[in-house]
Amino acid sequence: MMILRISVVAIGLVMVLTQALSAGEHWSLKPRTRPAVPGIDSKWVRNPIDAFVLARMRKARLAPAAEADPATLIRRLTFDLHGLPPAPAEVTEFAAAWTQAGAKRDAVLERWVDRLLASPRYGERWGRHWLDVVRYAESEGFEYDRFRPGAWRYRDYVIKAFNDDKPFGRFLLEQLAGDESARNDHDSLIAAGFHRLGPVRRNAGNKLVAFSRNEILTERTDAIGSVFLGLTVGCARCHDHRFDEIPQKDYYRLQAYLASTREYDVVLADAQTQADWKERTTRIQTRIQQLQKQVQGKQDKATERTIAELRQTLPPALPTISTVKNHTKERTPIHVLKRGDVARKGAVVGPRPLSLFVPKDAPELPAHVINPRTQLAKWLNDPAHPLVPRVLVNRIWQGHFGTGIVATPNDFGVNGAAPSHPELLDWLANEFVHPSPPGRGAGGEGERARTMKRIHRLIVLSSTYRQASVAADEPARKRIDPQDRLLSRFPRRRLSAEELRDAMLAVAGKLNLKTGGPSVMVPVEADLVKLLYDPGQWVVTPDEKEHDRRSVYLAVKRNLQLPFAQVFDQPNAAISCPRRESSTHALQALELLNGKLSNKLADAFAARLKRECGDDRTKQVERAFLLAAGRGPTMREREVALEFLRTQPLREFAVGMFNLNAFLYVN
Length: 667
Prior knowledge:
By secondary structure, this protein is mostly helical. Among the domains are: 1-30; 270-318; 497-666, no CATH class. Helices cover 48% and strands 4% of the residues. It has helices spanning 2-22, 48-59, 70-82, 88-101, 105-117, 120-133, 152-163, 168-181, 186-191, 209-229, 248-256, 271-295, 301-313, 372-380, 388-401, 422-433, 452-460, 474-480, 497-507, 526-530, 563-567, 586-594, 596-613, 617-629, 635-645, 650-658, 661-664, and strands spanning 261-267, 320-326, 335-337, 345-348, 493-494, 665-666. Strand 3 and strand 4 form a beta hairpin. The longest helix is centred in the middle third of the chain and has 25 residues, at 271-295. The radius of gyration is 27 Å and the shape is globular.
């Protein structure tokens, strides 16, 4: 008992000390510094990123790894910027240009990077990162998990915004308040669908309206804190934050910006079309319900087949924008809720930024302020904001190196990780907000402020990014920097679930690069579909060519995650996913060896090798490695592959290629 008491006292002391530290002293809440770029005399330093990284390395007595070979570098770049493997012709072209350029290789790399950034594939890859963070899904979760009509338009908006290199300030404003700032602009209304992305409980006959409304407001408030501020503001819902200086009252002040925000669907059809659609849909659904009652608890295959046929005749959803709008008359009064319980209302509060960023006695905005979310966006878009630019550039850094400068991208608070390179983080954040003029190391113009492609370009053109994945002194690196936080080599990573599926399609010659439009529903095991509340929600897209589109265009249903994606760590879309996990377990190997997708695509891969190389096994092996690994086989790999093909069919060799580390990992 004495030990327990001491432990409780110790925990309490730690919390008090931590809270004291958070009172304006935590590094992420302080104004950004203007760090001087370390003056390092080294040919390795190509831009300021390298100077900061090399200075940190030298302090730890580490040295950079050698430069990656051209095949490794172009594969790394293409996966990082496109989420796809380079075509064999691209590997050959890049390697030839690299070899011929000699001392002018930097110019070669710049041209290729610009080419990759200009491709529509870039938006599909980096849009996927953003969709993870904002908890994107097309269905509402919980029991009914109904699809939101037109939800896919938000996905297309994000992809286009990345491809257009939309300034982040505009990107933020449109998502938080697009309906306020541009009421008649479809893109802005689609962007405001950010507030509709979270799960929503739709219980039939639920009389707890206030409880449901509170759940919605809570989910949206927490998302804003995680996505844009990188803070766990949700921890202050029931009490003052235990670690960061966020009073419970501040949580509800942040929520007050959303008090008037209500769901709003904009149907893009005239009144007569809507009336005809409703009449036909109601008639068919009524007949389906009648038949369902007849077969309830019975095995009646004929009636079940009739139900399935009727579902096929339902008219497609009318074109719709899933967005929000302010309903001033239906504004929810925002109270501080004791223990977060909607039945225990405390003081009424109005919109106001967190006390972390404004004086504690700063006044709240009036409850009925016009365009409240525009006011919220204005605060977050302040160039001097200490968190927003840091959080954004950290997400970009993480997308290239696997781990951010701050390893906890959704938590820049006291409980989050300390930055590995704090000066570099501030330099990048400053560069993002106020680009350096030409001649000062970064390049850029004032009007290019807050565009993400500039930051990508800085990172991938650096010597830091161009390193091989094996350190110069590997034993010393493992001892001094086992997590590779100092970046004395490039961190190797496994492909994400979407990259892996897309790469298999590309290698097999089946990838359909059609962009945008309604999401695709691919075939799924019947037993999984039957688990849905309404199995009729999952209607497989009839055109089989659509099934081979990029994974970012597949339907995202919260209660039906595709097995292949799930086994390769695709995240649950119920909450913001700041960073993909990467596990290694037996089910992954079983999926790649025995799964329907891998075997179907192995057949296509084998057919492609046969078509392009004839019966020449040596050519088949060479081509297979160039397609799957972005390089030719080693001598040992060639020997093993040819020996395998003497006794096994080509399609089994193709299955084996999908299981190679050279295919599954990016070095």
